[in-house]
Amino acid sequence: MRSTVVPQLLEVHGTDPRPEGPGRRILLRDPDEVGAILHSNRFQRTDFVRQLSGDGLLATDGDLWRERRRIVQKSFPVRDVEAHLDSIRLALPGFVERLGEAADEDRPVCLLDEMMRVVSRVVYRAVFGVELGRDEDRVSIFQPMMEAVGDVHWSLVAPGGTVDAGSLVRLKRTRDAADVEITRMVERRRAVDIGIDDALGRLIRARDEGLVDDVAIHDEVRSLVLASTETSVNSLIWAFLLIDDRPEILARIERDLDAGGGDEIIDKVIWETLRLYPPVWANERQAIEPVDEAGRSWEKGDRAVISAYRLHRDPRQWEDPDAFRIERFEGLAERRWQPPHRFAYMPFGAGPHLCIGRNLALIEMRWIMREVHSRFRIDFDDPDSIEPILGIVMRPSAPVMVRITRRDRKH
Ligand code: HEM
């Protein structure tokens, strides 16, 4: 993988884009400033995210957000980290079979597609209470919408960027297509109850009690799909790519897995991957009124840019910040690990909007990596050609073609 950071990122993070005039965008450079803004009730999410994805949890604030979070929160128990393990375990045999078939036929596979398929199955069951078949990949129906959201997002974030009418038309079209799938999903969930406490089931019950309407269900499902799939899928791809460059880490993972362990080192790899390639690479909050906060004066409408990417690579906080060093996470398994500063490491955000699905994501990624490294080796066709590009999440620039071989160890 190319170790240099894409020029786009340098542009966004190296300057304070559009620093002057109404609605200034100001890049926060200090973790203390980030903490102050994320916890301030004078700052809210920007309207623009809401326009992109609708009034779902990802985009709302205030009373509407509180009410929606209250409805779905219980299906993501904070303390029960393994709450979604059954959904993860059920998706794995089909995933392993597919990779095994590709290995036996010596057929190249697109790693992104395979990750999307397995993550789809986990998310559809765990979050929407719908069981998919082995080869079903319903999430790719949402892919064009995710790309359209990413394009518009990037156009607005890029220095000097504007959104052209074509991108907005594409966004509308792809959202309409996604809504057809959401209607199907709700019908499927209503028809078959698989007996788990999923977010869609909770939303449907709230709808039946008159607490929310159909539009709210669509907004939430759209928001949950956006939040839960590309984030985990791309993190997994970055993790496999980073390990590809470090055979000694791969050897340790395989040795630990073969000895019946493996979770500790795999978790360190995941956390270090999320540091170097945080899928949600930047985020914004907007001042709702003139206010003094985080050491400066803000006008109404000014936007604070919070860059996880930048915070995670800040040399004042992290030694040799661009290096992939899993030793940074010593003590993770014993819950002793602490970031150098409370807001220096925040792949899942911080403050009231802290990611609701972080346990699901972390356990899901751990189990997928366990399966892959227990059974297979991955050879990337052209790892050096892959670099991060910025959409709504940070994703690889190329389709990520790989060859799979079986490891000697039999399971
Ligand atoms: C590696 C995987 C993931 C990463 C890196 C990630 C990252 C984030 C971040 C940075 C935020 C904060 C956004 C903000 O401050 O405005 C967030 C919020 C959120 N995430 Fe995740 N996420 C991941 C997986 C998931 C999964 C699996 C779900 C499952 C449903 C999920 C659902 C959500 C929701 C609903 C919110 C909004 C929470 C709120 O505002 O109350 N995420 N996520």
Helix-strand blueprint:
Blueprint: H1 7-14, E1 25-27, H2 31-38, E2 43-44, H3 47-53, H4 62-73, H5 85-104, E3 109-110, H6 111-128, H7 143-157, H8 165-191, H9 199-208, H10 214-228, H11 230-244, H12 247-258, H13 263-276, E4 283-287, E5 291-293, E6 296-298, E7 303-306, H14 308-312, H15 358-375, E8 376-380, E9 388-390, E10 394-396, E11 401-406
Parallel strand pairs: 1-7
Antiparallel strand pairs: 2-4, 3-11, 4-7, 5-6, 8-11, 9-10
Helix pairs in contact: 5-6, 5-15, 6-11, 7-8, 9-10, 11-13, 11-15, 13-15
Bound molecules: protoporphyrin IX containing FE.
Protoporphyrin IX containing FE (HEM) is lined by residues 45, 57-58, 69, 127, 224, 227-228, 231-232, 235, 279-280, 283, 347-349, 353, 355-357, 360-361.
Question: How would you concisely characterize the structure shown here?
Answer:
It contains 15 helices and 11 strands. It has helices spanning 7-14, 31-38, 47-53, 62-73, 85-104, 111-128, 143-157, 165-191, 199-208, 214-228, 230-244, 247-258, 263-276, 308-312, 358-375; strands spanning 25-27, 43-44, 109-110, 283-287, 291-293, 296-298, 303-306, 376-380, 388-390, 394-396, 401-406.
Describe this structure in words.
With 411 residues, this protein is of the alpha+beta class. It has one domain (7-403): Cytochrome P450 (Cytochrome p450). Helix content is 50%, strand content 9%. It has 15 helices and 11 strands. Strands 1-7-4-2 form a 4-stranded mixed sheet. A 3-stranded antiparallel sheet has the order 3-11-8. A hairpin with a 3-residue loop joins β9 (388-390) and β10 (394-396). α6 runs antiparallel to α11, α7 runs antiparallel to α8 (165-191) and α11 (230-244) packs parallel to α15. The longest helix is centred in the middle third of the chain and has 27 residues, at 165-191. The two termini are 31 Å apart. The structure holds protoporphyrin IX containing FE. The site of protoporphyrin IX containing FE has 23 residues, from α10, α11 and α15.
